[in-house]
Give the backbone structure.
Amino acid sequence: MTMIHCRVVTPEGLYREMDTPIINIETTDGQRGILPNHMPIVTMLKIGKMTTEENGQREEYAIAGGLFYFRNNKAEIMTDAIENKRDIDVERAEAAKARAERRINSHNPNYDLKRAEIALQKALNRLEVKRH
């Protein structure tokens, strides 16, 4: 079976490298399923869920947006943050959600509203991935 070799890179370095027969990602243009021999593609990722199949098991990740590049059955994902579903700490995600909501609702001009909204989206995404 032809596989896709996928590398996930964050600012800290290589997060994960895997071989998978499919990558499901959420792009700014909608959801995409990438199979082996897919045409080359470069696209922006939105805050969302990514799924793969690794060693016969479905894996789910919360991804904080980024860039997806695919060519010749090699995929590279560059993202600020990614977490496997089983590594998501619900208490930490709930705390991040509450903190972002407080900042948004405070109307404090010292808070960067856009940054708080993005933090809220990331926290909600992590909670959604963990719960499903």
In short: The chain has two domains: 4-85, 88-131.
